[in-house]
Amino acid sequence: MTDAAGGSRAAVGTGTGGRRPWSGRRVLLGVTGGIAAYKAIQIARDLTQLGTLVDTVLTRRARDFVGPLSFEALTGRRCHTGMWAPGQPLTHIALARAADAVCVAPATADLLARAAAGRADDLITAILLATRAPVLLCPAMNDRMWEHPQTRANARHLQDVLGYQLVGPAVGPLAWDEGEGPGRMEEPAAIIEHIGRALGAVPALRGRTVVVTAGPTREPIDDVRVLSNRSSGRMGYALAAAAWRRGAEVILISGPATVPPPAGSVLVSVETAAEMAAAVARHLPHASALLMSAAVADFRPAESRSGKIKRAAMPASIQLEPAPDVLVSTHDARPPGCFVVGFALEAEAALDHARAKLRAKDLDLVVLNPAGEPGAGFEVSTNRVTLLDRAGAVEALPLLSKDEVAERVMDRVVAALEPHD
Question: Which of 6, 183, 256, 381 could link 146 by a cystine bridge, Cβ 3.0 to 4.6 Å?
Fold first, then answer.
């Protein structure tokens, strides 16, 4: 079965399954004539695997770099290459109306100029005039072209007057023998996250700040050795990404994680529990939600020595003392209405301990992790959690990806922050 734009719906999203907020949504991907056009193939592939219906439009110059067949093979949908097609005189209107978001990647200097002037001399610019969906433009060009006053004026007009979002450009290697500079197209993974924000933003989080803690802390024994734990930071980073996609401004306070930081978040790097407590205290006054997923050390060496302790001089024991309890330290500083989520890693009497933590630390929600269960907890991409809220409700979730666990937690945050009659 085909839709109005000539794509087979049955062929889309059958690879790895859908993910919010991309799954079941429709994105129009415009590709213009620049060397970065090859990256658009990855964008189309990844969006499709997320469950997105991807309609691709290639300009005439884009076809000098990439061909329609690549996009059609990866999306299962027709790739559009011209304004007029037999039997479809209003393709630009059909595509513009169907799109939940429009992304042009790469967006050349010429595309920016034509879009800023309101031109409609090819299919992609006609769609830009006809759509009412969010529009993302991903500039890609030589650094001198990007820095030209006319290009910068076009960029300002597109953002400030037309309300389009410019994603990038990034700073990095340009075309052969051109060195590095601003003008490189953002990487596909970052562009997909920006598309996710365009699709997933909700009024309840618009203009609000969400503070997320993530990763382990490290408590120094000397200048070389530390006490730490096996947290990778994946859960906290997934929470930060989910909050940002829903429209929040996200402050991610992280210990040394093993995964790259998510797009959009402001990363605050810390090492020790004391540093994390100080960072949370700085950003908490402006927070509408506080998600405390970091694996903060419970103990630290009572004395940290300078230099490196030699093997022959290693003490028989290391005296420990309690590390700062970061979550407890937030209690009196929480702004009115701030929704606070704590995490509990428990092995025995897990529900009882989680309920005790909910009460003792005055939380709105506790995410209970089972310790030692295969596929859950540290250093894996999945988790099985139980959600306990202030009203006493308990929701046990099945084994899910940490991305989906983050979405379930953010469902609770959004519900709490939505205005109620």
Answer: 183
Residues 230 and 257 sit within 8 Å (Cβ to Cβ):
no
Check if 383 is active-site: no
Q: What φ, ψ does residue 275 adopt, rounded to 5°?
A: -65, -40
135 and 233 co-located in one domain: no
Beta pairing, strands 382-383 & 400-401: antiparallel
Assigned domain for 402 exists = yes
- What is the Cα–Cα distance from 344 to 368, expressed in whole angstroms? 5
**Alpha carbons 302 and 306: distance in angstroms, whole number:** 13
Q: CA triplet 202, 208, 209: central angle to 5 degrees?
A: 125
376 Cβ contact partners less than 8 Å away, ≥ 6 residues apart:
369, 370, 382, 383, 384, 385, 399
pTM metric for this prediction = 0.89
* Token pair belonging to 192: 């997909």
Residue among 404, 398, 384, 385 nearest 22 (CA)? 404
Is residue 108 situated within a structural domain? yes
First to last CA, the chain: 44
DSSP state of 216: B
Q: Is residue 2 part of a domain?
A: no
Q: Which residues of 157-174 are buried (b: 16+ CB within 10 A; e: fewer)?
A: bbeeeeebbbbbbeeeeb
Contact 401, 382 (CB under 8 A): yes
Q: How would residue 17 be classed by pLDDT, with cut points 50, 70 and 90?
A: low
Share of the chain above pLDDT 70, in %: 94
What is d(CA 197, CA 20) in angstroms, rounded to the nearest whole number?
10
Q: What is the pLDDT of residue 12?
A: 34
For residue 100, what are its two tokens?
Answer: 């939940």
Taking the C-alpha atoms of residue 213 and residue 256, their distance in angstroms, rounded to an integer, is 11
